[in-house]
Design a protein that fits this description.
The chain contains 7 helices and 19 strands. The protein has 409 residues and is α+β, with helices and mostly antiparallel strands. Helix 2 runs antiparallel to helix 3, helix 2 packs parallel to helix 4 and helix 3 packs antiparallel against helix 4.
């Protein structure tokens, strides 16, 4: 399995940078000598002689490294400054940009944010800036990079091991493929400490089951149901359509209510003679965690999460095609992000305080159904234990879909 984001992160350490990612504080107006330059300073009230900065420039080829150097202001007169060149890889030229060393914290925070949301090239530029401006801050940045790399390597190893066990299964329904991953029976700690509604507790899943390798797609929905996912009837009974937020045969189906998902499962079950249904909350979280006990299935930190999930800053504000992100250790794709996924349970915030230890099914009655996993619209990564509710079983939204379970006879 190839991990493109892993390659990109490694390249970050090789100092590949982005042309447009920097805070420009000044620019070079004249090269006086190899060791002295003249600058135009954008905010002279914010600097004084002695201030350090780094010099950089953008090439037309985005894959080329940017020349980095270190300078120090010696004279300041209005917007004009004279700076001493302390360090540079190549000769500095007119028009090159300068960022002050005092902005290293801002560069550092921006780098972490860029890396978190998958803008690895922007993060790499800022990493270089940080490494020159502040060795202390660079140590923190190095730590974050190692965390990201280790998390991604661990998931890669687990995924390859899971693939070797041949858990995957493809079922054909009149030539329409439905792909599943066999989830082994086992136990895990469900929930997390900081939420009353997600109180940690031991849960056992006592039977193997198949869960969808991907979210149900728009193609699969139309194949089974015969109508587009975004069709509805107006008050006069005429067909109308909602505007799609990501459209294509292999995009997840959304604008689906809980009742409609139930109807889909029933039709598929009737067509095949097998039992298809929504997963319980316990089954869903167990499948998401895939044998891990870390906050995310990819590790303790979210800095590498963009390799595994579609979220606000990497999704172009719409759902994306299934299976384009790295799967979890059991080979299941998009369990975080892309679209929220409905589960079978009624929702009760106190249910898990005294729920059954084996195969919990959720409350017997309720007014709201549950959802898991987050969606492309979330600005942060959603924990596998995080819960959300649907107002009614008829509610339909542009960021809510589902995946299904196939029971093993």
């Amino acid at each position: 399995m190839k991990l493109k984001p892993l390659f990109i992160l490694v390249m970050m350490l090789a100092f590949t940078v982005n042309a447009n990612a920097a805070y420009k504080s000044a620019y070079v107006t004249k090269v006086i000598s190899d060791t002295q330059i003249e600058l135009n300073v954008e905010r002279p009230d914010k600097v004084k002689p002695g201030v350090l900065g780094h010099v950089w420039h953008a090439l037309n080829d985005d894959d080329s490294p940017r020349i980095m150097g270190r300078v120090q202001i010696t004279e300041l007169n209005g917007n004009t400054a004279i700076a001493k060149v302390l360090q540079t890889k190549e000769p500095i030229k007119d028009g090159y940009n300068v960022t002050w060393a005092k902005n290293s914290d801002r560069e550092y925070k921006a780098a972490l944010k860029a890396m978190k949301f998958g803008d690895f090239q922007s993060a790499s530029y800022r990493y270089i800036a940080v490494s020159i401006l502040s060795p202390e801050t660079k140590a923190n940045m190095d730590k974050k990079l190692v965390e990201s790399l280790n998390g991604m390597k661990a998931v890669q190893a687990m995924t390859e091991a899971a693939t070797a066990t041949n858990r995957d299964k493809k079922f054909l329904v009149d030539e329409q493929a439905f792909e599943f991953v066999r989830v082994p029976a086992g136990s895990f700690t469900m929930g997390r400490k900081d939420r009353a509604a997600e109180t940690p507790h031991k849960v056992a899943i006592t039977k193997d089951f198949y869960i969808g390798k991907y979210e149900i797609t728009q193609e699969q929905w139309k194949f089974i149901m015969g109508t587009p996912v975004n069709m509805y009837l107006d008050k006069d009974g005429k067909s109308k359509f909602w505007n799609m937020r990501g459209e294509g045969k292999l995009h997840p189906a959304y604008f689906i209510s809980w009742d409609m998902a139930q109807e889909f499962c029933k039709k598929l079950s009737d067509m095949t003679g097998d039992t298809y249904r929504l997963p319980t909350e316990a089954e869903w979280e167990y499948a998401n965690r895939a044998g891990t006990d870390t906050p995310f299935f990819w590790g303790n930190y979210d800095s590498s999460g963009s390799a595994f999930a579609w979220y606000y800053s990497n999704s172009n504000k719409s759902a994306q095609g299934i299976g384009l992100k790295t799967p979890n250790a059991w080979g299941i794709h998009d369990m975080n992000g892309n679209v929220w996924e409905m589960v079978s349970d009624w929702y009760n915030s106190e249910y898990y305080l005294n729920s059954p230890a084996n195969d919990p099914q959720g409350p017997e009655t309720g007014t709201h159904r549950g959802m898991r996993g987050g969606c492309w619209e979330n600005r942060v990564f959603i924990f596998p234990s995080s819960r959300k509710t649907l107002k009614t079983t008829q509610s339909r939204f542009y960021d809510v879909g589902f995946r299904i379970v196939r029971e093993i006879k």
